[in-house]
Amino acid sequence: MSTIPNSIFTPATAARFDKLATIYPVKRSALVPMLLYAQDDLGYVSDAAISEIAKRLDLLELDVRNVLSYYSMLRTAPVGKYNVQVCTNISCMLRGGFELLDHCKKTLHIGHKETTADGMFSLEEVECIGACCWAPAVQVNYDFHEDLTPAKMDAVLADYREGRGKDVK
Amino acid sequence: MPDVNFIVDGKKLTAPAGTLLIDACKSAGIEIPAFCYYPGLSLQAACRMCVVRIEKAPKLGTACTTTVAEGMNVTTESPEIAQARKATLQLLLGNHPLDCPVCDAGGECELQDMTFKYGAADSFYAEPKNHREEQKWSPVVYFDRPRCILCYRCVRMCGEGMDIFALGVQNRGSSSIIAPNVAPSESPDHMAALDCEQCGMCIDACPVGALTSGTYRYKTRPWEMNHVATVCTHCGDGCKTTLGVRSVNEGSEIVRGDNRDKSGMNGDFLCNKGRYAFDFANNIERLSSPLVRQSDGKLKPVSWEEALTFAGKKLRELRDAKGANSIGVIGSNRTTNEESYLLQKFARTVIGTNNIDHHRTADFVTLATALQGTTTADGKPRFASQRCVEKSPAILLIGGDPTNEAPLTAWNIRTNVRLNKARLYVANHQDIKLKRQAKAFAPVAEFGYAAFIDSLASANDFSTAVKAEEKLVVVVGNELRGGELAKLIAALPHAKFALLADYANSRGASDMGVLPDVLPGYQSLKGSTLASEYGAAGQSQVADAPGLDLLGMFDAASAGHLSALYVVGSNPIKRFGIDASALKNTFVIVQDMFLTETAVLADVVFPAANLYEKAGSVTNSYGDLQLVAKAADKAGVRSDFELIVRLADKFGHDVKTLVPFGKGLRAAGMSGDMGQTRGAQSGEADRHSVWLTANNLEPKLSPFDPFAILDEIQRVVPGYDKLLRLQLLSGNDQHIAPAASGLVQIQTGRKDLVLPAADTLFTSGSLTRFSPMLQDVQRHQASEHTDHLASAD
């Protein structure tokens, strides 16, 4: 096993990567999971992370970037502590997704893919997050908040701001 | 594969099973349009332009991924198909800027042709176009994003063809783009860039104007240039290149090089130097007037008459006063065969000395003598052609690094391994890049090639595998020469051999006898018919003892024994690191394009034309003979051929005995030839004679006609006697093998004097610093701090 010396990841993530590289018939199959775990670890996929993952999987950095840029949930720049992802796909749109998005923009004073000055929140307009039954839905980091209204959204944001939010990350 | 019968557009066709429909149709003269399909690269099926109607298939099918089958009935043009292709074009044009009037590709763009053919000018997609600024990825590669149609040709060409993988596709859907391997975040100027071999193959493969050449962009239009097919001057591989030239005040300048006609041994391949490094010819430092050193010690421009008369007379005085053997002549590995032959004939019959040599970059004398009298298992000569590297089922590469030193050899090896599953064996002291294609790799200690040759005799995995190959081509780098080379050739008794050499005509210079110890064709100085012919033609008796070699001449100069030195197209002072003071008492004549380290020491400097500015022939390091055609022109320079003849004339020599031109001088059978058989491509003099004939004037060949010397080469140089004029004039390559017997015997202790040029992808001997493009690319590559390419292991 080719453990990378001086890994930029936490020991737990590095150990996980060591294993990931061995469990697929083709090594590069581990690329997408690795990118996701790297993002969880660092908050985003940095150049250093790209470089280390390329080394781990015997890929060129370009190969990693090609895949990385394909997926919209993988990001190459840091976001706020809580990444608010508002769905505006059809079910949520019909149930007020755009109103929610506009409300978030107004209360947080930021736009799509922007971060508040205190680094607490980032806002993102996303496509379907698979919560159509309880539309309109918002995903904050990995937590879902469903059946929202602007008032409920204020409460959700307040909870996070006060440190009461679910933070499974 | 067995043949299958099928019908295309009502025509009954036959092709081997497994042939792609698009290829089978092309062979039958039926063109199916395609953007993403590119012969030799993997299939992409991305563009949907090649859709055809296949009977009994529910939908239109792509001809580029369908293999022919028995009984298949195909329609390639119908209103239905035209509509499908038109719809595809409308989608491609959805964000295409249609800036054809300013686009480099305008006039030779596949998208333009197809739009014209299927008339997709009107479109359903009327949304505003999303414009992006052009990006400079390197000094030679520019990217215009909106023009890109995402055919992936460049991505595959870079990865599969070049084995670099510097291009990829990023993002998704309509925002997909071609991306280079240096991301903006990693680049010093925060702009995406390319860290690669800068070959420009991506530009060549691009069907539109998305990738454009840094040296050609916005300079001219394709139809405003003349296109001349000739041979690249840089390395010893002998790539054909089509130079686009246009008229300028000083003659005609080269603005573009490519090989889109896919002629020659390189097909569409050209490396960075072949594609871009012709710009030395337009360098403002180029000499355009003869220079003569004045009494104040400075070089001053003078008239041609004055310079030639002075040089010729002085050379004659020194020859008569100090003897012929006090004069040395140094030839070039970039001049034509005709010039090399003429130069050694000048040394041997006009001056009367064997003191002639050139900067040797491979030991061709040993190759010729070691292979004489032997054949392969099926009785063929054992000299390998570049074509063998492309086709042979097995290749052994010993030493050398073709990727950097002989890029076409590397391309052909890669292509052969990829498409024909050829077996490549590599023995090298470095982890060269071609190791990635190798079936087996034998590490060799530096300077340890002798031990490697010994190890071939013992039974190990590598030697067993190599010896089991029945049709083996051995490509040998410049690490091996002399006795070691002879031993290697003896160790692999049925293999074909080739040496890697540098520069366009290293092999030609050797074959033409620009060497102190052999006559043209590696014939002996003593006793051969050529030796006696030269003896009869010469003004003084030609010695049958070897003359001074290149280093010997400078030793003699240091000791005060060299009265004159005549250097043609060479820079020995720089290349061999010779102390300039060695020449302080020697009369030096130099012919060159620039004031090189050698030229600044000269008493007379003649501005010379380069290989792109003259006609003749060259022989690549494999022995493939090809035609050089005059592409560019520069006022104030003359070809080395003309200069040698004029110098002989001013020396007081009867030039008719040097160049057999004019009526009645040729051997029987040739005397009726006034140049008519040579066509219009054989140089200025012949063009003149064609014009004269057309105007009912008396045709006369000029003494500056290189083909008069080619006649003599064909007559007296073994191997070249078999050359086919029509092949040569058609621009085809033909393989020349030296005579099978009667060659010079190598004396033990002969110095091989091979000095490898050690050129990289971005250097070309003394020309490097006169090529602004090469300088730019070197700076660009140096600014990339990290290596973005995969390692060899």
Please tag this protein with its features.
heterodimer; A: 169 residues; alpha+beta; Glutaredoxin; 2 domains; five-stranded mixed sheet; 42% helix; elongated; B: 793 residues; alpha/beta; Ubiquitin-like (UB roll); Alpha-Beta Plaits; Rossmann fold; 4 domains; seven-stranded mixed sheet; 16% strand
Write the topology of this structure.
The complex is a heterodimer of chains A (169) and B (793).
Chain A: H1 11-20, H2 31-42, H3 47-56, H4 61-70, E1 82-87, H5 90-94, H6 97-108, E2 114-115, E3 121-126, E4 138-140, E5 143-145, H7 150-161
Helix pairs in contact in A: 3-4
Chain B: E1 3-8, E2 11-16, H1 21-27, E3 51-54, E4 61-62, E5 73-75, H2 79-92, H3 110-118, E6 135-136, E7 141-143, H4 153-161, E8 167-170, E9 177-180, H5 201-205, E10 211-213, E11 226-231, E12 240-248, E13 251-258, H6 272-276, E14 291-293, E15 299-301, H7 304-322, E16 327-330, H8 337-351, E17 356-357, H9 364-371, H10 386-391, E18 394-398, H11 402-405, H12 407-420, E19 423-428, E20 440-443, H13 449-457, H14 461-468, E21 472-476, H15 482-491, E22 496-499, H16 506-511, H17 529-537, H18 550-558, E23 564-568, H19 572-575, E24 587-592, E25 604-607, E26 616-619, E27 624-628, E28 633-634, H20 640-651, H21 655-658, H22 684-694, H23 706-716, H24 725-729, E29 734-735, H25 772-783
Parallel strand pairs in B: 1-5, 16-17, 16-23, 18-19, 18-21, 19-20, 21-22, 23-24, 24-25
Antiparallel strand pairs in B: 1-2, 3-4, 3-5, 6-7, 7-10, 8-9, 11-12, 12-13, 13-28, 14-15, 14-25, 26-27, 27-29
Helix pairs in contact in B: 2-3, 7-20, 8-20, 8-23, 9-15, 13-15
